[in-house]
Amino acid sequence: RCVDRAQSGALRRAAASPAKAVTCRSVDFSTTQIRGVSRVHDRSAVTTFLFTDIEGSTRLWEQEPERMGAALAGHDALARAAVERHHGTVVKTTGDGMHAAFGDPSDALRATIELQQSIADPASTGGLGLRLRCGLHAGAVEHRDNDYFGRAVNRASRIMAAAHGGQVLLSQAV
User: Fold this and answer.
1) Which of 112, 117, 88 lies closest to 160, judged by CA?
2) pTM of the prediction?
């Protein structure tokens, strides 16, 4: 049944009339197309989250502060490009990592693999080798004020924290 209470009387009257047909159609508002890129925006959609973190970044900042600035800028550019190319949205950067959201778990995994492969090349990060840990989890969350809240976000972050540099860990939900 696809009738809300405000329309139920009018639709019942139309359905009772032999001259009029009533058509119900479901519309998925969980994603919208913007310049060909699917963006997650529903208040409480099932979303796949990616968290990344550069392993040993504190040590690298202490040992190589000039090179680390360029390496982090390279990471940020590669991460944003991979996420956007695979229909995701960068929610925020987290100092030496990133939090991204995807409407489709396959897109999240493709973006993560692309990012890991691109970050493995020291030339892409100013000559400084970076090892990235990544965590993926999917679940229902609340989306408000350009941010996400809920257990799925927390779990994705904890999964990332369990990874080692160069690893991608994902939950069974993905």
Assistant:
1) 112
2) 0.71
